[in-house]
TrEMBL record:
Protein name: DUF3531 domain-containing protein
Organism of provenance: Amborella trichopoda
Region (Disordered): 42-64
InterPro entries: DUF3531
Pfam families: DUF3531 (PF12049)
Length: 290
């Protein structure tokens, strides 16, 4: 604790007296000490610094960074404790499954996007991620129900609701079948090569082929599906019935190699749970345009 400088005497002292010299020296020394202490206190180098006012020590940028870090910690906590278990399983599986990783893409970390990606994959390609052969080893059943070649449905029953890919496969078969019939392919009156012997080079009579009775597939509808049942309306026109053998041969290989067919029915107006006019995608309706 610094003492105050000595009080000046009320009555003047002679400048040459010893008391005056001693007093001035003491007064000057005290003033110097007080000035030095004040400078040090102002600079923060001396005295008790705990009594000095302190700032917050943060800037606006620092407070923003702190807020960002807190938000990141909160999100990480929510991800660990509230993250759906199924999404975590899929993300872990991506490490060893390149196809699954390609399906999820940039949706990892977002359960809602993961769900949409998987649903889209299932809708397009079916439920199995790895499936080298998707057909059935069991041959499908074939039956006829008052089949009229010029005005009848052909029904197909599958083992389950078809994916978009399977709808395209079946639709493409019927489309190709119709195009061939439209061009006169199913004409039994001109089977020169199949009726000839192949022991020698067969002869083909072009005039006979050109003058054969025309054969034409008249019309066909789009291929429709409701759940696991599909149907297509046909008017075979003047096609010969072996056109149906050609179709069944195609469907046989399609069933054994790719999608599995339970039965094919020629004729009939309503099979399974088919509901006329029900064309909503939400209820399993799908269609292949021909």
């Amino acid at each position: 604790m610094l003492s105050a400088p000595p009080t000046l005497p009320l009555s003047p002292l002679p400048l040459s007296s010893p008391d005056t010299i001693t007093f001035l020296s003491s007064y000057s020394s005290t003033c110097n000490r007080l000035a030095t202490a004040a400078v040090r206190a102002a600079a923060g180098d001396g005295g008790d610094s705990s009594s000095l006012p302190k700032g917050s020590g943060t800037t606006a940028r620092g407070r923003r960074l702190l807020k960002v870090r807190e938000e990141k910690r909160r999100r990480e906590h929510d991800r660990i404790h509230d993250y759906p278990a199924w999404a975590k399983v899929l993300e872990d599986a991506c490490k060893d499954d390149t196809e699954l990783r390609a399906v999820l893409g940039d949706s990892i970390g977002n359960p809602e996007q993961i769900r949409k990606k998987v649903e889209e994959r299932v809708r397009k390609k079916g439920r199995d991620f790895h499936k080298s052969k998707t057909g059935s080893v069991v041959a499908f059943k074939v039956s006829f129900r008052d089949f009229n070649p010029t005005d009848s449905y052909i029904w197909i029953e599958l083992y389950g609701s078809p994916s978009d890919r399977e709808v395209d496969l079946i639709g493409s078969v019927f489309q190709s079948w119709y195009v061939m019939g439209r061009l006169g392919a199913f004409n039994s009156s001109n089977l020169q090569v199949s009726n000839a012997s192949m022991d020698y080079n067969p002869l083909y009579d072009s005039d006979k082929g050109a003058n054969a009775l025309p054969s034409s597939f008249h019309d066909i509808s789009d291929v429709e599906f409701q759940d696991n049942w599909g149907r297509v309306w046909v008017d075979l026109g003047t096609c010969d019935f072996f056109a149906m053998d050609v179709l069944l041969n195609c469907l046989t290989v399609l069933s054994s190699e790719y999608l599995g067919i339970q039965q094919v029915v020629f004729g009939g107006r309503r099979l399974g749970d088919w509901e006329e006019g029900m064309t909503s995608l939400e209820y399993g309706y799908k269609c292949f345009k021909i």
